Amino acid sequence: MNFVHRLSFIFFFLLFANVNSAVYGQQGDTKEKQKDLLSSLNWKKWSPDPVPLFTPQESLSQFKLAPGFRIELVAHEPMVKDKLGNWKVVDWQEALEKTVHIIQRGKSLGKYGVRGLSSPLCSTEELLLFQKLIKHCGSDSVDF
């Protein structure tokens, strides 16, 4: 065999060895292929731990503040306006009932009975949900 034949033989041998190893590499782990996708996943590993529920005062006590700063508890109780226009603290049931009453009254007024005004600082998803809420109330009046 001359030099060119030897060189071509070595070249094809190395090429075949690389192709063969690439084919084996593409097969992956055969154990995982025997299982279906859902049974191979460990859902417990991905589920988050349950979040403890705290009262507003307990949540407030969890904060650590630098000296000179203070923190206040705001918007932890629902407030509604009474007939005179004064804000009063109510329980959640009464606040939700009043909300439902206001939305139903707005729906009865027609297309412009309920209007929505949102901040442009909201995310796209928040704005979309807000728009869907206002449209569900029977109105197209949404400003951002």
Overview of the molecule:
The chain has a two-stranded antiparallel sheet. It has a two-stranded parallel sheet with strand order 3-4. It has helices at 3-27, 30-34, 37-40, 43-46, 56-61, 92-108, 124-136; strands at residues 79-81, 87-89, 116-117, 142-143. It contains seven helices and four strands. The model is unreliable at 19-23 (pLDDT under 50).
In a few lines, what is going on in this structure?
Helix content is 51%, strand content 7%.
As a whole number of angstroms, the C-alpha radius of gyration is 33 Å
Determine the N-to-C terminus distance: 82 Å
β-strand percent reads: 5-15%
SS class: mainly alpha
Shape: extended
Average pLDDT number? 75
> Roughly what percent helix?
40-55%
Q: Regions with pLDDT < 50 over 5+ consecutive residues?
A: 19-23
**What is the chain-wise order of helices and strands?**
HHHHHEEHEHE
Question: Number of DSSP strands?
Answer: 4
Sequence of strands across the biggest β-sheet: 1-2
Describe the biggest sheet?
2 strands, antiparallel
List the helices and strands and how they pair.
Blueprint: H1 3-27, H2 30-34, H3 37-40, H4 43-46, H5 56-61, E1 79-81, E2 87-89, H6 92-108, E3 116-117, H7 124-136, E4 142-143
Parallel strand pairs: 3-4
Antiparallel strand pairs: 1-2
